[in-house]
Amino acid sequence: MLTHYPIKRSVLVPTLLYMQDELGYLTEEAIEEIAHRLDLPVLEIRNVISYYSMLTTKPRGKYNVQVCTNVSCMARGAEDLLEHCKKKLGIGHRGTTPDGTFSLEEVECIGACSWAPAAQVNYDFHENLTADKMDELIEQYRKKGTP
Ligand code: FES
Question: What is the pLDDT of residues 92-109, one digit of tens each?
Fold first, then answer.
């Protein structure tokens, strides 16, 4: 990837996402390896990780359900949708189901405001959600399997 970017620092976020996809989360060893390869201070990498909600240093479930509760989604029932997800999965914000299948997060705008309320599961967007649609989605992901 380094050859596609003008400076090493530019490849930091794609590298973090790649590493997270491979490992499930950004481990201490992964952060130190990236710092070494990109000639960046570990602190700078930690700052970038803490800025982007899609990056995490803690293990998540196989399917990370991110429910947007920002203005457009909130106006169209996102807070009720989030509460529904909490009950359905039996976990709270940033929780993970005991079997490691699902994590749940309340997030800021994911850029799907015109189709609110919206949620993202890993890299897939889901729009115009209702409690029933969310139940179907969760069951579809559950059928795909556990880790
Ligand atoms: S406010 Fe929810 S996607 Fe923008």
Answer: 999 999 999 999 999 999
